[in-house]
Structures are given as C-alpha cells and as structure tokens.
Specification:
single chain, 2 domains, Quinone Oxidoreductase, Chain A, domain 1
Length: 299
C-alpha cells in the first residue's frame, strides 16, 4: 500500500480524496518510481476540483509532474536508484500521475534529474519552469538576441511568467512584465523586469495592426491577438497556456505585413531531446535563489 490522491467518478459523483492505494492497482509501465516531490499544476487543480475535463480515465491519480527515485526498471536507460524527472505525457489525465508515493511509468517519458537541481528545487518550478525555458529556447532559435528589443511577458506573476522573467533578465534581455496583479510590481521588478504594465492595457479588442510597442511578444489569451498586432517588424511571439481561454480574434496582418512569427509551445508531448535541453539550460540560466519565494507566491 502507498498513499496518494485518487479521483473517482461513479453514481456517487466526482470525488478526489487522499487514501491508501494498493500497489497492484498501478497502471502498466516499465519503471516503478518512488515519488519524492510533485507539484500542484493548474491542470491538477482543475482535475482535483472537477472544474475542468482534465481527467479522461477513471480512477485517476492526478499530478502532471514528479521527481523520484527508481525502485524497479526493465527499461534500458534506467536502473534502481536513479533519480528521474517527468513532465506531461498525459500523466494525471490518462495515466496515473505524481500526486502519490508511487508511480509506474514508461521509461520513454522520463529524463534524468539534472545535476544542478535537488528534487525539491526541480519541483518548485515543475512544468511552469520547463515551459518557460521552452519559450526562451524558441526565441533563441528564431534568432532573437538581447539587443533586439524588449520582451513582453503576459501572465507575468504566474509560474511560467515569473520563471521567464528570471531567465531572460539573467541572459541580458530587457523584459516588460504584463500582469493583472499590479500590486506584485515590486516582486516582478525583483525578478528582473525593467517595467510593469497593467493587463487591462492589452485586454480590449484592438486594430489588426497597432502601434509597434515591443520587439518580441509574450503569451496567453485573449491578449495574444493584441500582442501580435503590436509586435515590431520581424518579432517573435511564443504562446502557451489556456488560462484565459482559446479565442484568437486576430487577422493575418501582423504576419504578412510585419513578418511576425507566432510559435506555439507544447510542453506535454515534447520529444525527450528537447526536455533534456530545457532542463539543462534551467540548471545554468535560472537563479536558484529565486525559486523559493517564487514557488510560495504561486501557491
């Protein structure tokens, strides 16, 4: 037996509760992990409360992230005692996830825990930090340099936004933070933002092309359309997250008249090589001293 959160749905309704779980009930997989740390991701909150259709198979252990130590393995890449990390791959949705003391998983979903992180540090940023790094890598691959202009980050006080500010400012970029929580301005400036703007400035429907305010744009709906419309010529916008909805009320004008590039960032099904690169870069490009205060604010 081990402890975990189990979500069930039956004639009695939708329920999530902490309870003992028999190890024989674990789903198939070639690596058994003793979970050390996990996170409570936005998806996990939706799953546990039943506020969103995240769980697609019942019963389900939520938890889209985990760090743990291998107890058993028939996978060639991992052996007993290895520390491993997982983000996404549908765990917590269609396969039991990390909010339990044990997880049986496919070894193809796992990567080694980077040497620069303790298990606690890795999970204090989790998918949020990993996604932020994927956004930064996308900007770099499209040739964006610190001297090219401002980077606008929406949802700046959240998990992805906070980590993105810390990374980009450390790399020498000039970061403008956009947030609905303007009382967090000192926190965002402390992470490295040069300026903090209210979210309301980007919330109203805009023109197909607006006055170019920033060189490279940020993330999240419904502000994405306005960010694209006000990004300077040749700019790159990385988009991730659905917290504010899926609508994209825009035109092709920013893309064909200003050469703006919109890059979608998926963190769930990302190939293993991209995951290893992102976590390796996090270990070198993120100030770990900022992890604890950031993680506390996200809870």
């Amino acid at each position: 037996m081990f402890s975990g959160i189990l979500i069930t749905k039956d004639d009695g309704g939708y329920q999530a509760r902490g309870q003992g779980i028999d190890e024989s009930l674990l789903p198939p997989g070639d690596v058994l992990v003793r979970v050390s740390h996990s996170t409570v991701n936005y998806k996990d909150a939706l799953a546990i409360t039943g506020k969103g259709p995240v769980v697609r198979k019942f019963p389900m252990v939520p938890g889209v992230d985990l760090v743990g130590q291998v107890e058993q393995s028939s996978h060639a890449a991992f052996k007993e005692g290895d520390w491993v990390l997982l983000n996404g791959w549908g765990v917590g949705e269609v396969h039991w996830g990390g909010l339990a003391q044990r997880a049986r998983l496919s070894g193809d979903w796992l990567i080694p825990l980077p040497a620069g992180f303790s298990p606690r540090q890795a999970m204090s940023i989790g998918t949020a930090g990993y996604t932020a790094m994927l956004c930064v890598l996308a900007l770099e691959r499209h040739g964006i340099q610190p001297g090219d202009g401002e980077i606008v980050i929406t949802g700046a006080a959240g998990g992805v936004g906070s980590v993105a500010i810390a990374i980009l400012s450390r790399l020498g970029y000039s970061v403008v933070a956009v947030t609905g929580r303007t009382d967090e301005a000192d926190y965002l400036l402390g992470l490295g933002a040069k300026e903090v703007l209210p979210r309301a400035q980007f919330a109203e429907p805009g023109k197909p092309l607006g006055r170019a305010l920033g060189r490279r744009g940020g993330r999240w709906q419904p502000y994405l359309a306005n960010l694209c419309a006000t990004t300077r010529y040749g700019g790159v916008v990385t988009a991730c997250g659905l917290a504010a909805g899926m609508d994209f009320p825009s035109t092709v004008a920013p893309f064909i008249l200003r050469g703006v590039t919109l890059v979608g960032i998926d963190s769930v099904m990302r190939p293993k090589a991209d995951r290893i690169e992102a976590w390796s870069r996090l270990a070198t490009d993120l100030d770990l001293q900022k992890l604890v205060p950031s993680a506390t604010r996200w809870l």
